[in-house]
Design brief:
It is a single chain. The protein contains 3 helices and 9 strands; from the N terminus they run ββββαββββααβ. By secondary structure, it is an alpha+beta fold. It has a single domain, classed as Nucleoside Triphosphate Pyrophosphohydrolase (Alpha-Beta Complex). It is globular and about 60 Å long. The termini are far apart.
Length: 198
């Protein structure tokens, strides 16, 4: 999806997937080649105004990596979830980072951590990069050093890897993709987005 806000200093919300798997005793991290930026990055993209961050994340996982929710566990600070009438509890990102991405534009990136428990269920979407790489931390570090991957990706994977033992692993499919339909709040003066009447 293209940028929603294009003026200098404006922010777009993005969602990123930092995906880890165990492979014959080695911990590997997923990156893919971003053709527009000509560099290796994590899976992810913009959050469209018509979808929740979790819906956007699930779309990016499918489109760019072929993953369905049943193939993944999402890393959370706690296995407990808020369960209240009229809301849909979404997974909590392990970090929210504001990143300058050129032309005085900013991304507020919701960083989700995942464990791949299975191979991707389906094919990467047409038009997406087919260059996906499962790399060890040492291999990521070398790519960051040579400029083939932005150093931030290494730093964020480093943070996630160092906190793996303290995070709860929850089946990703346990988080709903539904959109709530019953309002829990009604505006009594004006409509959402309008100035409050005096």
């Amino acid at each position: 999806m293209p940028h929603i806000h294009e003026k200098p200093g404006q922010h777009d919300i993005t969602a990123s997937a930092f995906i880890i798997r165990e492979d014959e005793g080695a911990t590997r991290c997923l990156v893919h080649y971003h053709r527009k930026a000509d560099v290796l990055l994590q899976i992810g993209g913009h959050v469209d105004p018509e979808v929740s961050p979790w819906q956007a994340m699930v779309g990016e996982l499918s489109e760019e990596a072929g993953y369905a929710l049943g193939d993944l566990e999402v890393l959370q600070f706690t296995a407990d979830r808020i369960k209240e009438h009229g809301i849909v509890a979404q997974p909590v990102p392990f970090a929210i980072l504001t990143e300058p991405v050129g032309d005085e534009h900013l991304h507020d990136d919701l960083c989700y951590g995942f464990i791949a428990i299975d191979a991707p269920s389906h094919q990467i979407h047409e038009g997406e990069s087919k260059d996906l790489r499962w790399l060890t931390y040492e291999e990521l570090a070398l790519l960051a050093e040579t400029g083939e991957m932005i150093p931030n990706v290494l730093g964020i994977y480093s943070f996630l890897l160092s906190h793996l033992d303290s995070l709860a692993r929850t089946p990703a499919r346990e988080f709903s993709l539904a959109t709530p339909t019953e309002p829990i709040l009604t505006y009594k003066r004006g409509r959402p987005g309008e100035a409050t009447p005096r």
